[in-house]
Structures are given as C-alpha cells and as structure tokens.
C-alpha cells in the first residue's frame, strides 16, 4: 500500500496526499454527496461554457447590427432591404418595432404586395397615439430577449449557494460517524484512529468548494456581461423609438407667437389690440380684436 501512495505522489502529490486517501476512507453517505456535487459541477460548467459562447456571439452581432442600422437615415431601410434577419436580440427588437409601425403606416407589415416601397412612401405619418402599440411591441421584445439571456442562470446560482451547504452536510455527517465509532470502540481514542474518518468527512467540503468557486466567478462574469447586453438593448430601443418619432410620427406644427415690448400696456392696447409690430420682448401673446365701437366705449365709461 505504501508503494501505491509513493507512485501516486509522483504522479500528482496533491491528489495522493489528500483527496485519494480521503476518498478511500469515505462512507457511503460521503460518496453519495460527492457524486451529487460532481453532477452539479458538470451542469454548472456546461451552463458557463454555453453562456460564455452565447454572450460573446450576441455582443459581436449586436454591435454589427447597430452599426449597420446607424449607417441608414431611414429607420425602415434594413427592413426594406431584408437585412434584419438573424437570432440577435437587437434584430428581434427591430423586427418587432418595424412590424408594428408598418401595420399602422401601410397595413402591410409582411411586405406581401409588390409595391411595398411605393406604398410606404405614400403612407404619410401616423398619430403620436399610434406609437403606443409600437412601444409595447418593443417592450415585449426586450423582455423576451432578457429572459432568453438569463435562462439557466439559476442553476449557476444554485451551484454557488447550494454546493457549500452540501459539502457542510457531508462533513458534519462524516464527523458524527467518526465520533460515534470512537465512542463505541474499545480502548482509548487517538488521533491516528480518528484521522481517517475526519479526513473522509472533510472531503465533501473540499469537493463542494471546488464546485462553488468556479461557479461563483462564472456567475459574476455572466451577470455583469448580461447586464451590459441589456443596457445595449435598452439604448437601441430608445434610439429606434426616436428614429420612428422623427420619420413617421406627425406631431403637428406649433404656431409662432408674436411678441411685444416690455413697456406697460394701456387699457386701450388690451381692448383694441393696438400693439406695436416691431417689438422683440418675449413673454406676451398678441390677441387681435376688432376695435371697440362708440356704444361699447360709452358702456365702459359708465
């Protein structure tokens, strides 16, 4: 047996000194907990690798789509050119908003007719109230994509928070078995007799930390990266909404307001509307009225 440990130490001193000996001394309950931790670690590593590849791809494709969108003045140019395809959050957001606003502009969001471009040019503009469904459609797309990006993150959170407790359970269980064995054994207890049981009990804590520590770093990285992607998605939604407002929403025109000088206005100015025409003092509105007749003057003097 000593020769086995010597050869194992030559191969891997870390495993030979601790883990291999503790695993050989483990009870059935300790081995079961270690197997559960191994399964949890496999799932957490699968999620971390999958999510890492996903967020890297989404970040790159989002940046490419936003750059392509900003190269066009017309916000519906990508839709007309069939350049808004792809499983990208910002592209899905763009498609949702474009379909809804085209439904109000032309009633043909699917571009089923041959003269779609001409219909869009002749469509005019929509009312500000009609932008509410467009905003709702974009909000739904944002919520859907956030849910997709955050899916399976709960498994990583479970590995971070649950693995140490499983390890603690195995350790406490193993220590209880060790002390109960010492209590029922004949003769005086010594460190040499207690060491195998305590070592086996501590094995579950070590395995649990090996599961939880990588999951913690991966979880924190993915959470921060997904937050950045969500912020980019919100920013693009605001940019798209502003572009739709500029191009396809009719807010009407506000009539210019004449101005008067800052001098004290007389009663005849207010009644007759005889205000100077070349003043530049802001803050007053000219109300033109018909001149007061003689009968009305008599009534005012009375």
List the helices and strands and how they pair.
Layout: H1 2-11, H2 13-25, H3 28-70, H4 77-80, H5 89-105, H6 116-121, H7 131-149, H8 153-184, H9 191-248, H10 267-272, H11 294-301
Characterization of this structure:
- The protein is built from 11 helices and no strands.
- It is mainly alpha-helical and 302 residues long.
- The protein folds into 2 domains: 2-248, no CATH class; 267-301, no CATH class.
- Helix 7 (131-149) runs antiparallel to helix 9.
- The protein is rod-shaped, with a radius of gyration of 38 Å.
- Residues 1-9, 254-271, 277-289 and 296-302 have low confidence and may be disordered.
Summarize the structure.
This protein has 302 residues and is mainly alpha-helical. It has helices spanning 2-11, 13-25, 28-70, 77-80, 89-105, 116-121, 131-149, 153-184, 191-248, 267-272, 294-301.
Q: Structural class of the secondary structure composition?
A: mainly alpha
Radius of gyration: 38 Å
Report the span from N to C terminus: 127 Å
The count of DSSP E runs of length 2 or more, i.e. the number of strands, is 0
Shape: rod-shaped
Strand content: under 5%
Task: Characterize the main sheet.
Answer: none
Q: How many independent structural domains? A: 2
Order of helices and strands: HHHHHHHHHHH
| Helix percent band | over 70%
- Average pLDDT over all residues: 74
Per DSSP, the total helix count is 11
- Pick out the low-confidence regions: 1-9, 254-271, 277-289, 296-302
């Amino acid at each position: 047996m000593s020769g086995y440990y010597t050869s194992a130490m030559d191969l891997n001193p870390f495993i030979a000194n601790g883990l291999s000996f503790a695993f050989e001394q483990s009870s059935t309950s300790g081995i079961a907990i270690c197997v559960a931790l191994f399964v949890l670690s496999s799932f957490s590593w699968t999620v971390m690798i999958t999510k890492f590849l996903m967020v890297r791809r989404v970040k790159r494709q989002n940046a490419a789509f936003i750059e392509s969108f900003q190269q066009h003045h017309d916000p519906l140019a990508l839709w007309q050119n069939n350049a808004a395809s792809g499983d990208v959050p910002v592209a899905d957001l763009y498609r949702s908003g474009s379909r809804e606003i085209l439904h109000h502009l032309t009633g043909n969001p699917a571009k089923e007719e041959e003269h779609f471009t001409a219909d869009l040019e002749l469509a005019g503009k929509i009312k500000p109230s009609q932008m509410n469904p467009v905003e709702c459609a974009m909000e739904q797309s944002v919520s859907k994509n956030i849910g997709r990006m955050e899916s399976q993150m709960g498994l990583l959170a479970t590995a971070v928070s649950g693995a140490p407790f499983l390890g603690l359970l195995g350790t406490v269980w193993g220590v209880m078995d060790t002390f109960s064995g010492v209590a029922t054994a004949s003769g005086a207890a010594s460190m040499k007799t207690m060491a195998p049981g305590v070592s086996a009990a501590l094995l579950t804590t070590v395995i649990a930390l090996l599961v939880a520590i990588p999951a913690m770093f991966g979880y924190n990285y993915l959470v921060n990266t997904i937050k950045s992607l969500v912020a980019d998605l919100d920013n693009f939604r605001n940019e798209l909404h502003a572009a739709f407002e500029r191009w396809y929403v009719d807010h009407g025109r506000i009539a210019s307001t004449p101005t008067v000088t800052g001098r004290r206005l007389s009663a005849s100015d207010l009644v007759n509307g005889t205000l100077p025409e070349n003043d530049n003092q802001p803050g007053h509105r000219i109300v033109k009225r018909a001149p007061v007749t003689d009968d009305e003057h008599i009534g005012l003097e009375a």
